[in-house]
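Quick one: structure for this chain?
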Amino acid sequence: MSEQVPDELVELWAELRPELLRQVATLRELVTAFSEGAVDDETREQARSLAHQLAGSLGSFGFDAAGAAARALELRFKQRVTPASVPLLVALATELENRVGTGPPPQPAPPREPAVPAPPAAPPAD
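Got it. Here's what it folds into:
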């Protein structure tokens, strides 16, 4: 994570994290299927779509490196998967798992100072 996020996103992360971790696990299973030779267009499209969803979600929560790994997987799945591309898919899936599974939750952003100072208080009426 590179940035702090608003409190609302911290709460949303706590709520959505289990589902995002399931999606990461599903993506890993799909990558494993490719490494075992189960390569077909339907599976590739499923993996691409899942990687796309993860890239957006993880980036929104400040997990920039995990989002980048998911985006790289998405781009790879837009192409035909070959035996030569499988090691990179495995490495990217591992990077994604490591960044999300062990990553700290988003940290709340510190309170912001007002952009414009408040006007001085009016003097008390006599």
